[in-house]
Amino acid sequence: MQVEPAAPLRAIAHLPGERGLPLLGHALEFASDPRRLTERLRARYGDVFRTSFLGTHAVVLLGEDALELVLRDRAQAFSARLGWDLSLGRLFPNGLMLRDLDDHRRHRRIMQAAFTTAALADYLDGMNARIAEALPAWGRARDLRFYPRLKQLTLDNAASVFLGVALGPEADRLNRAFVDTVEASLAFVRVPVPGLALHRGLRGRASLVEFLRAQIPARRGGAQTDVFSHLCRATDDDGRAFSDDEVVDHMVFLLMAAHDTVTSALTSTAYYLAAHPEWQDRLRDASASLGAEPARYEDLGALALHQQVFDEALRLHTPVPYIPRRALREVAFRGHRLPAGTHVSVVPDFTHHDPRLWSQPWRFDPDRFGPSRAEHERHPYAFVPFGAGAHTCIGKRFAYLLAKVFLHQLLSRFHLRLAPGYVYRPEQVPIPKPLDGLPLILEPRAG
Ligand code: HEM
Fold first, then answer.
1. Does domain 9-444 have CATH number 1.10.630.10?
2. Average pLDDT in the 221-241 region?
């Protein structure tokens, strides 16, 4: 595959924008308030502007047309691998998102075996069981912090549904390795300094790799239905299976891709439900026919309103706010010339708050996704929390499934409340998460 070197600053100096501080560029401003930085640069330079970040020079393209150009990528002019390599390449080499073109297509087709309707229906029992085990303790906890509890639950869920193992205390080492690897994917400092996250993450990755590799022979011959076992057995149209290295690289990437995104999205969903008790009642009414039982696959239709609430949380706090690419050849957008090698960033989070597309965009209003308003259909790229085009999130249906069955069990058991005067201020990057862990009051429901 063609490897296009990154364009140096002088190659994109003709584009509007600025360098920011020496060496740091806009890194500090971005870390402290990325939305304000975007607004500031947009007010000054328009919807196409140049920015710099710790020595990397990139061009930000704003708006739904930019999302379409880059994500749909009809001309196959953008590389996801070279876009993500900077932040994810060391910890997650060869993950699906770090592959391009024919190589990506072949790997994605094989991986689909783990995401068929039948496979998803199989995962449901494991998800429901982990949720049912976790929730009673949440109800008893004093000073519950929702975010770390949910993180533990999504981790246990990943162990059972993805790996087909239970991560009990005896599996501490694996648990630690997993947490370290996932945490490191969000680390700000991208140099493996001992004691810092990336260094721990690389060690974690090595342990995960060792664990996965040792299990592959048994999984290839076995009949287990977890994601890992599916990947070990899946083949393409020519009967070719993934090699051991490929299975390992895909699994480590999948564990990361599935974990923080879902945790982030369900945390903001829980916050908005607690802040809007009328929506808790509406969801309980909508799923009244299921009673308090965990939802089965055939019940998911009754949880359509749950999806609207989840979508509204994804819109307001988009877990992947920015999507990077590198241009493989020269591209034109709105009269601007982007040379081959340009780092490009498109911004779903910006478009998800665009007042031209959404009425009162900063307001929590899940009815906007209902059939009578359908604001998300005002443009095919108005709502892209899972991306679009060849790299559309392969776990999108998995994420909706988990969100629906989790919200159903949570609301069947508890009324969600906030302390009076509580203000939700999630950190926005690298992924939206509440620094205070989101203190929630869970009042058991009668009956
Ligand atoms: C709310 C939860 C999630 C969100 C918001 C999300 C978001 C995204 C986005 C925006 C992309 C596209 C990135 C790009 O174009 O460069 C993506 C890709 C991907 N996601 Fe997700 N994701 C979520 C959950 C999951 C889950 C649960 C899994 C696995 C079970 C998963 C696995 C992947 C994989 C493998 C890719 C790469 C796809 C490819 O390159 O073909 N994600 N995700």
1. yes
2. 93
